[in-house]
Amino acid sequence: MMHMPVQGRSGSSVVSTTVLASVVYGLDDFIARLGAQPVHVFSRCGLEGGLRNAPSDTVLLDTYCRALDYAASETGAKNFGLWFGHQFAPRRLGMLGYAALSSSVLGEALDNLASFFPIHQDNSIVRHQKEGALCRLEYDVVDPLIHDHRHDAELSLAVFCNIIREARGPDWMPMSVSFRHKAPSCTDEHEKAFGCPVFFGQATNAILFSSDILSTPMPAADSLLFSAIKDGLLQIEATKQSLNQDFLMQVRRIIFDLLPHGYPSISQVAERLGCPYWTFQRRLVDAGFTYRLLVEDVRRHHAVKYLREDEHSVAQTAFLLGYSEGSAFTRAFTRWYGCSPRNWVCTRTATG
């Protein structure tokens, strides 16, 4: 069976990254097993709600990464993410895990893992590439706001190895493992966990293995289950997109209504929506926006609309868009469209 490189779908410009809440399952038990109090870890990073979420709900990846950092500190396990991933059963990934496990052969399982991973965790990429006699399975987070996700990267590659072990048996080992981050203090634990050489400071997070195992049958192959799981994942993707679009339209309308009274605060918009401030912030994150960028987007759209209608002067437009000074509006308009609003109006009038 020939496997071409597969790259998962990733968000192109979203601001924050979320992951399905299934990744939180078992985290409290593992922390407790290592002698720490899970409630202390979760309270420090605000992850308490994630433990009560349905598998289709999401948590912030940045929050999850902080929880792993805090867990390492509380338990004294410097390589907490590595060992949490080492014992993490793939089925606990929820639908993503079952999509891989119910595939027909290992190569297909890894292709499906790559294809569906961005639904499980947005702003992220998994690549499955065959290079002659070798295969690489790569993982990366492309959110520029997440700078350090060492524990997450080590956890993820350990779980990917466990998916392969479902087909090849518990003694299977990759040829090598690479990480982007610098070497931690206890690298001998990494070679023990993966059973192979481990390299740090590399171009990407990846596991390297022989391509001759790709045709290995998956023990839990089930075409009917896979079809149902695929439909479920695509439904999550469609639902998130639909809910986000409806939510953003509502927020845009509220911002537009408030702008003539000055720059609307995030608390004002949340109050109009009838939801707590922190819930509003969370929904914005899920939709891939920050509040500041959303206000600017509303202003940018309506600036041209007002000026095109010929009913409002530049000064009136600046006021309607919540600018206290016309100069601030001129600077913003120039940044958006490459010319001042007055020049834009003159050019439009000259060209009819």
From TrEMBL:
Keyword Transcription regulation appears in the UniProt entry: yes
Residues of the HTH araC/xylS-type domain: 249-347
Superkingdom of this protein's organism: Bacteria
SUPFAM superfamilies registered for this protein in UniProt: Homeodomain-like
Keywords (A to Z) from UniProt: DNA-binding, Transcription, Transcription regulation
PROSITE patterns: HTH_ARAC_FAMILY_2 (PS01124)
Entry-linked InterPro entries: AraC-type_N, Homeodomain-like_sf, HTH_AraC
PANTHER family referenced in this protein's UniProt entry, alphabetically: HTH-TYPE TRANSCRIPTIONAL REGULATOR GADX
Protein name (record): Helix-turn-helix domain-containing protein
Organism: Acetobacter conturbans
